[in-house]
Amino acid sequence: MIDKIDLRILNIIQNNGKISNAELARQLNMAPSGILERVRKLEKRGIIEGYEVRLNSAKLGLTVTAFIHILTTDSVGSTKIGEKLAEFPEVQEVHWIAGDYNYLVKTTLKDASDLRGLLKKFGLIKGLSDTRTTLVLETVKERQTIPTQQLTRYLNSNGSHA
C-alpha cells in the first residue's frame, strides 16, 4: 500500500536522487531508519526501479534528437522487432504503440550522418517495413518524473493502492 508519506518520499527522490537518507528523514520529520525501511520497500516492490543521472546531451556533442516511427510486419501482439530495436546502444527508448506504426523509438546522436547510419542498421532488421523520422528542433521539457499530485488524485479516488 502506498500512503502519503511514500508519495512525499517519491516526490523528493524523483527530483533529487542524490539526497541522503538523513536529509530525506529531516525533510519528512521522521527517523532515518523509518525512511530507509520505506525506501527499501518501495524498491523491493518495483515502484522505485533504479536511480539514474541525467546528462546534458548537447554538452556531450549529441545534438540531434529524433523520434522514429517504425512499421513492421510483426504478427499482432508480437514485440520481437521492438526487442531487436532495444539492443542498439544508440536507442534510448522503444515504445510499442497503437496506430499506423508499431513502435516509437527515441535516439540522440551526434549528427545527421549518425542518424542515417542508425536508420540503415534498422533497415537490416527482417520484418521492418517502413520508418518515419521526426527531428527535434528544441526540447521544451523532458523529464522522467511522475507528478505525485497525479498519484495523490488516484489514491483519493480509489483509496490506497499497490
The helix tally amounts to 6
The fourth-level CATH homologous superfamily of the largest domain is Lrp/AsnC effector binding domain/regulation of amino acid metabolism (RAM) domain
Q: What percent of residues adopt helix (DSSP H or I)?
A: 25-40%
Counting helices, strands and paired strands, the structural category is alpha+beta
Looking at the structure, the CATH topology of the largest domain is Alpha-Beta Plaits
Biggest sheet, spatial arrangement of strands: 2-3-1-4
What CATH architecture of the largest domain would you give? 2-Layer Sandwich
Mean pLDDT: 91
CATH class of the largest domain: Alpha Beta
Runs in which pLDDT lies below 50 for 5 or more consecutive residues are none
- Topology as H/E string? HHHEHEEHEH
Radius of gyration: 20 Å
Number of strands: 4
Distance between the termini: 5 Å
Biggest sheet layout: 4 strands, antiparallel
Give the total of domains: 2
Give the amount of beta strand, in percent.
15-25%
Describe this structure as you would to a colleague.
The protein has a four-stranded antiparallel beta sheet with strand order 2-3-1-4, covered by helices on one side. The protein contains six helices and four strands; from the N terminus they run H-H-H-E-H-E-E-H-E-H. Helix 2 crosses helix 3. Helix content is 39%, strand content 19%. The protein folds into two domains: 4-52, Orthogonal Bundle (Arc Repressor Mutant, subunit A); 58-135, Lrp/AsnC effector binding domain/regulation of amino acid metabolism (RAM) domain (Alpha-Beta Plaits). The mean pLDDT is 91. The longest helix is centred in the N-terminal third of the chain and has 13 residues, at 32-44.
